[in-house]
């Protein structure tokens, strides 16, 4: 029997061929690899009918749906090269006996560092300082940069990424509070030097708010106009979770009306960002936009690929993969 890998991600077949061999899977001669990233839905369905493995699209542009899964009678594993998996119908996979793998924790360091960097840059008004200095305007007394020392930093979501951010904030002397649907036990709150806060209280009290929650029906548009109205007009909002967690129009309006002090966003409702995104209409040095690179450091990419292909090799060898969400 020939095993078939259908790749929905923008990965060349040659790269997969190089990454696939390893411990427990030295001979890959009987494995067919199809890159379906540029195929339409009907072509994809036709390819996955006899697939053993699906490599999901880590750009989240191609969904793995219930009808697709029902067609794939030989499917063992859907592996995503990312922590997120909202574009995969996990319930349908579970019903069909198909495992879904991700790469938990692989990019925690990168995302945490990016989060702190955005906070520091916005508090210290680095874009304004850089732009005006390049323009030979010496704004020595005008910039009035701040410090995060002593500030209240609110973390929404205290999974592995939220914890990684909290850990890195400790040396800065930040007062960290958090909200999560699952409160940490007291020993972990002590370890990460965080205090639990109800959601609305966090919005009211935090000087900097960073988002680290998954995208679910509950968290979609978690931060909208009503939530922004609860925030201080000097507060900084950072989103490194998923674009749909915030109402982008509401954030754009708040920045234009100076209802918040700044925003740093690494994720967007449509990626790549489109010209109709309301954030692009905001002309201010208090807004930093980055192209979903927080978790795409060279180091994290190596970890992600290592974990993902370890899972794929195990599934092809008849073993149970390690990193599963179902």
Topology (SSEs and partners):
Blueprint: E1 3-7, H1 13-19, E2 31-35, H2 41-48, E3 53-55, H3 66-71, E4 77-79, H4 90-96, E5 99-101, H5 108-123, H6 126-134, E6 152-156, H7 160-169, E7 175-179, H8 186-191, E8 194-196, H9 199-205, E9 208-211, H10 225-230, E10 236-239, H11 248-256, E11 262-265, E12 287-289, H12 298-316
Parallel strand pairs: 1-2, 1-3, 3-4, 4-5, 6-7, 6-9, 7-8, 9-10, 10-11, 11-12
Helix pairs in contact: 5-7
Summarize the structure in words.
With 326 residues, the protein is an alpha/beta fold. It has two domains: 3-106 and 299-316, Rossmann fold (3-Layer(aba) Sandwich), CATH 3.40.50; 108-289, Rossmann fold, CATH 3.40.50. Helix content is 34%, strand content 14%. It has twelve helices and twelve strands. The longest helix has 19 residues, at 298-316. It starts with a strand and ends in a 10-residue tail after the last helix.
Keywords:
alpha/beta, Rossmann fold, 2 domains, 7-stranded parallel β-sheet, 34% helix
Low-pLDDT regions = none
Number of strands: 12
CATH architecture of the largest domain: 3-Layer(aba) Sandwich
CATH class of the largest domain: Alpha Beta
**Strand order in the sheet with the most strands:** 8-7-6-9-10-11-12
Shape: elongated
Helix/sheet category? alpha/beta
Q: Could you name the CATH topology of the largest domain? A: Rossmann fold
Beta fraction: 5-15%
DSSP helix fraction: 25-40%
Rg on CA atoms, Å: 22 Å
The helix/strand order is EHEHEHEHEHHEHEHEHEHEHEEH
| DSSP helical segment count | 12
- Count the domains: 2
The mean pLDDT is 96
Q: What is the CATH H-level superfamily of the largest domain? A: NAD(P)-binding Rossmann-like Domain
In whole angstroms, how far apart are the ends? Answer: 26 Å
């Amino acid at each position: 029997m020939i095993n078939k890998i259908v790749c929905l991600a923008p990965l060349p077949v040659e790269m997969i061929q190089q990454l696939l061999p390893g411990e427990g899977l030295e001979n890959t001669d009987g494995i067919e690899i199809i890159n379906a990233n540029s195929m339409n839905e009907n072509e994809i369905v036709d390819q996955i009918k006899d697939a053993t493995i699906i490599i999901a699209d880590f750009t989240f542009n191609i969904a793995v749906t219930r009808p697709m899964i029902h067609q794939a009678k030989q499917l063992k594993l859907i592996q995503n090269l990312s922590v997120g998996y909202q574009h995969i119908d996990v319930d349908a996979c579970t019903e069909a006996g198909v495992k879904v793998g991700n790469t938990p924790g692989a990019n925690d360091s990168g995302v945490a560092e990016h989060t702190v960097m955005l906070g520091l840059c916005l508090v210290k008004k680095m874009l304004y300082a850089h732009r005006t200095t390049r323009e030979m305007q010496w704004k020595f007394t005008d910039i009035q940069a701040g410090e995060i020392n002593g500030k209240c930093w609110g973390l929404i979501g205290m999974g592995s990424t939220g914890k990684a951010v909290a850990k890195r904030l400790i040396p800065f002397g930040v007062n960290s509070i958090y909200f999560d649907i699952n409160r940490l036990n007291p020993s972990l709150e002590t370890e990460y030097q965080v205090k639990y806060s109800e959601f609305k209280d966090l919005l009211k009290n935090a000087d900097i708010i960073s988002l680290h929650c998954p995208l679910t029906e509950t968290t979609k548009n978690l931060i909208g106009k009503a939530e922004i109205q609860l925030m201080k007009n000097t507060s900084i909002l950072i989103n490194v979770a998923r674009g749909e967690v915030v109402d982008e129009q509401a954030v754009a309006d708040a920045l234009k009306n100076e209802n918040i002090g700044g925003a740093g966003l690494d994720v967007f409702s449509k990626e790549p960002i489109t010209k109709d995104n309301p954030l692009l209409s905001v002309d201010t040095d208090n807004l930093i936009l980055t192209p979903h690179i927080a978790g795409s450091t060279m180091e994290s990419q190596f970890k992600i690929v290592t974990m993902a292909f370890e899972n794929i090799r195990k599934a092809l060898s008849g073993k149970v993969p390690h990193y599963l969400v179902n």
